[in-house]
Design a protein that fits this description.
Blueprint lengths: L3 E4 L3 E2 L5 E7 L8 E7 L6 E7 L4 E3 L7 E6 L4 E6 L8 E8 L5 E3 L3 E5 L2
Length: 116
């Protein structure tokens, strides 16, 4: 079972930037989809960005143009660069690993708070 550990969450001003990292304990080369989801209290978890092992990237409409996902299989790491942050980006961000079989693993999450 792959372990995922997120880091990089912080409190930032609107318009600021953060870079989140997701470090995997095992190889991710054979995992179909790696990515980021976010959730606030009382809200459903929503997709932020994903990247397949073949390099296909998907972004939520709300973050496209502001966030950039990157995946490095040899480094067993996935990053989420977040620019031009808005208060509505405030959430717990979790890293996910989705295998071809459909089995999913999740990290513990890291809190991003955007506030003035």
């Amino acid at each position: 079972q792959v372990q995922l550990v997120e880091s990089g969450g912080d409190v930032v001003l609107p318009g600021g930037s953060l870079n989140l990292s997701c470090a995997a304990s095992q190889s991710i080369a054979s995992i179909y989809n790696m990515g980021w989801y976010r959730q606030t209290p009382g809200e459903r978890r929503e997709l932020v960005a994903t990247e397949t092992t073949g390099g296909t990237i998907t972004y939520a409409d709300s973050v496209q143009g502001r966030f950039t996902i990157s995946r490095d299989n040899p480094k067993r790491t996935v990053w989420l660069q977040m620019n031009s942050l808005k208060p509505e980006d405030t959430a717990v961000y979790s890293c996910s690993a989705d295998a071809y079989s459909g089995k999913a693993n999740w990290g513990q999450g890291t809190l991003v708070a955007v506030s003035s």
